[in-house]
Specification:
The protein is mainly α. Strands 1-2-3 form a three-stranded mixed beta sheet, with helices on both faces.
Length: about 230
């Protein structure tokens, strides 16, 4: 699956502006949209669940405070029991026993407040994840969203799936020579090449990653030419 975001701005217009926005998805083929959509939904779920581990809601904070207070009271009672035992063993034992028995706060915390807090956290998390995923789906289906089959990404996808005998992007037919009817000029070419350069430069520079990225000699030659054309060193 290959997809890149592109920003088309008039000359002199800064990235932060009040111009009407249009979201454009560039794909290597018509089946990539479903893969990207699923990837984004899955990533959203993973990221939000990971972030939620570091957060606590108000009920959880209250439960934590009760836990802390309960510990202090319990330790205090045990200390008093220990001191009392020196003077009166029977009284000391009674105080210590009372301290280690389940307290009201402990029972409320275990079966009431903590459970409610956890339930609320799960509910809020699921609600937030569903809202975020709905936003992603809405962006894919919005009227101002354009989905284009990018010839350069087509070429990238083809060369990564073939051997040098089957296809060489520098000597065989080149899908990247095609045009995008959705756009009036060829600015998309430069943006696509720059995006590919940024994605693959680190991998290109590390031979140990070539096999993992499915890069053969022909792919490396093609990328090297693209780096040179876009002055990426």
């Amino acid at each position: 699956m290959h997809c890149i975001p592109c920003a088309f701005l008039p000359k002199g217009v800064p990235e932060v502006n009040n111009l009407p926005k249009r979201r454009i998805f560039h794909f290597a083929h018509e089946h990539a949209e479903a893969g990207l959509r699923q990837y984004m939904l899955h990533s959203t779920d993973e990221i939000m669940r990971e972030q939620a581990k570091e957060k606590t809601n108000t009920l959880q904070e209250l439960a934590n405070s009760i836990d802390e207070l309960d510990r202090k009271l319990t330790y205090g009672m045990l200390l008093v029991g220990g001191l009392a035992a020196i003077v009166n063993p029977i009284v000391g034992a009674g105080i210590a026993a009372k301290a280690v028995l389940p307290s009201i706060t402990g029972l409320l915390n275990k079966y009431g407040l903590r459970a409610s807090a956890d339930k609320l956290s799960r509910y809020q998390l699921e609600k937030e994840i569903n809202a975020a995923q709905k936003t992603i789906i809405d962006e894919f289906e919005a009227a101002n969203t354009v989905q284009a089959i990018n010839p350069i990404l087509q070429e990238l996808d083809l060369t990564l799936r073939t051997t040098e005998v089957e296809h060489d992007p520098l000597s065989s037919f080149n899908l990247a020579d095609a045009h995008l009817p959705e756009f009036k000029d060829d600015k998309w070419r430069e943006l696509t090449e720059v995006a590919i350069c940024h994605v693959y430069k680190e991998i290109y520079d590390d031979p140990s990653l070539h096999k993992q990225a499915n890069l053969e000699a022909k792919d490396l030659r093609w990328l090297k030419l693209m780096f040179a054309a876009n002055k990426v060193s």
